[in-house]
Amino acid sequence: MKQFSQIFFVFVPWYYFILIILVGLLRGTATGVGLQIIDALLTLVALHIFIHIGYFIREAGRLLWAKIAGGVPHHIILGSGESLVELEIFRVKIALNSRLNIAVSLAFFENKSSLKLRFGTYLAGRLLTSGGFALALFLLIGFDIKSFLGHHGIALGSAFMMANFYHFVINLFPVKIQYQRTNFASDQVTLANLSETPAQALVTNLSDIYLMDIQDYLKRERYEEAYRLYKKVQSPQNQLLRINTALRLGVLLHQQTLFRESLIVYQSLKPIIQKPAYANLKDNWHLGRAWNLVALNKLDKAANQVSLMQTTGNDVSAIHLIEGIMLIRQGQIEEAIDQLKPWVNLDTDSSSSLMAAIFLCEGLYQHSPEMANDYLRYVHAHRKELSPIHKFFLKKAIQAKKNAALGS
User: Fold this and answer.
1) Measured between alpha carbons, how far is 344 from 8 in angstroms, rounded to an integer?
2) Quick one: which of 234, 277, 61 has its CA closest to 164?
3) Residues of the domain holding 231
4) Whole-prediction pTM value?
5) How many CA atoms lie within 13 A of 105 on its CB side?
6) Residue 185 vs residues 65, 66, 69, 146: alpha-carbon distances, Å
7) Same domain assignment for residues 174 and 211
8) What is the pLDDT of residues 386-398, one digit of tens each?
9) CB contact at 8 A, 230 and 214
10) DSSP one-letter string for 158-203
C-alpha cells in the first residue's frame, strides 16, 4: 500500500489530489458559467497529470519499439532526486524518483543484420509512441480548443491527446539529459549521426549486462532468478566480473541448499579458472565445489577438491569443517571431535561456530549423547541466526539423534 501511494503521488502531486477533491465537491452544485470554469480547471489539472504519466508512456513505448527491433529492453529511470521505488516488470527495471522532471530508458543490441535500422527504430521510439497516441486520439475524437474552456465537460480525451503531443514536440528538439553523473546523448543527434556511426559502436555484449543484473538480483536475495539469468551468460568481455559473480552466486545458492544449481555454476568456470591470471581465486572455486559435494554426500569427490587447495588463512576454518564432517560420515568420531571442537565458540553466533556445533551433534550422538545435547542447546539458542544450509545439516544431526535412540 505504501509503495502504491508513493507511485501515485509522484504522478498525481498531493496538491492536485486535494484540488481535484475540493473542486469535484463544488462541481456537484455548480451550474452555467461556474460549471464551465470548474470543468476547464479540472481539464487543465488532468493535462498536467497526463504529462507526468506521459514520461512513463513514452519511455515504455521506446523500449517496446526496441523489443520489436530485436533489442533487449533493460531499464527506465523516471525523475531525479530521492529514490522512491524500484520495480521490475517483464524483466525491465524501473526506478522512480521523487521529482518527475526527466525520463530515460535503455535497451541493448547485439550484432544482427540491419543493425542500424533496428537501432534507429529504437531511437525514434519516443516520437513514434507520443506521436502515435496523439494522432490516434486526434483521428478518433478530433480537437476543439473549447474542450479546454469547459464547453464539453471534463475533456479527459483532449487532455491525454495534448499531453502526448507535448511529449512529441519536446522530443523533436535535441536535449542532452544528465542523470546523477551520467550523460545520456540526445536521440535526435544520435539518429542524425547514425549513418556515420560504426555498427560495432552500437553493439553491447549482453553477457556483461547479465552479470551486472545478477549482482543486482543477489543484493535483493532473488537467487533463483540470478541462477536462471546466469545460464544465459556466454562470452563476457569482463572475465574477472564473470568469475567473481559466479563464485558469489555459487556460495549463495549453496547457502539456500540449491546444491546442484551451485555445482553447475562452479562447473561453468572450469575452462577459465585454470588460467594463471586467476590462480588466486582457484581455492574459492575448489572450496565451493567441496561444500556442495559434502551436502550431496559425495565424500570422495569432496576430499579431492580439498586436496587441490592451497590452504590460506581465510580457508582454514572451512577446510576443517569439511574434513570434520567427512570424518564423521566415515565413522572416525574421535578424529572428527579433535578437528571440529576448536572451531566452536559458545560465546558467539558466527556461521562457522554454529556449523561446527551442528556437525559435532551429528557425530556425538553415536559417541557421547550428553555432549551432543550441549551443542544442540547452543545451536537452538541461536536458531534465529541459522541459514537454510545450517538447517539442512541440522536435520541430518537430528536424524542421527533419532537413529541413535532407535539403536539403544
Assistant:
1) 52
2) 61
3) 205-298
4) 0.76
5) 27
6) 18, 17, 20, 39
7) no
8) 999 999 999 998 9
9) yes
10) HHHHHHHHHHHHHTTS---EEETTEEE--HHHHHHTGGGS-GGGG-
